[in-house]
Amino acid sequence: MTGENQGEGRGRTKVLYLGDHYDANSPYGFRMYRTTYGDDEKWDRFMTYFKANVEKFLGDSEEKDELPLMDWSVQSDPDLQDATTEQVREKFIQWVDSGEEQPENSARFRACIVVDEDAVESVIMTQEFLEKHEKPIDYEDTDGSGYVTLVSRDELDDDALVCIQNLYPTTYDFLHSLDWRFIEAKEGEISAKPQ
Questions:
Q1: pLDDT tens-digit profile of 119-156?
Q2: Is there a contact between 64 and 58 (Cβ–Cβ < 8 Å)?
């Protein structure tokens, strides 16, 4: 069930009742939207880094059983080139409303990932640093320098840069059990690292 709610001065906000539905075999993870199409080699490097870090940090967690259910698909559409977070949010809301997947009470239906040129470059620079210092691709990113943009379904929550190594399970769990205000970079941090 969806509805509309007017936020003060912020425009339209869609609200989705997620109910109590939960399927242990449902896909796990945020839906990812690609908004940069200039260099496929850089994109491939980004995805290699993304997958390696998700596999390590989710695989080392108590939620490692979710790894086989991880949704690695990327919403790729050249029409999304340089799309704003608002445009991606609208696409995400349309997907949730479409019923393609049964909405459930998980972070998967509360926020999505946007990968723009800045995010790809953040990962390329992180990889170059790791290569220069002969560190593995999943070496701990204490600075949060490899990041993506996490966009809330709710316009009032907006969006935040989130360190890739902190997406799963940390940020995913925060959005499921707490709320958006815990997903923000602290002073001096490049991206959010919820703890």
A1: 999 999 999 999 999 999 999 998 889 999 999 998 88
A2: yes
Q: Where are the alpha helices (DSSP H) in the chain?
A: 40-59, 85-98, 117-132, 172-177
Q: Are 30 and 152 in contact (CB under 8 A)?
A: no
Sign of the CA dihedral with 181 first, then 186, 190, and 195 last: negative
Cβ contact 159:150 at 8 Å:
yes
Residue with tokens 């019923």: 99
10 Å CB burial of residue 137 (0-12, 13-18, 19+) is: middle
Assess contact for 14 and 2: CB atoms under 8 A.
Answer: yes
Residues 6 or more apart from 9 whose CB is under 8 A from it?
Answer: none
Regarding pTM above 0.85, the answer is no
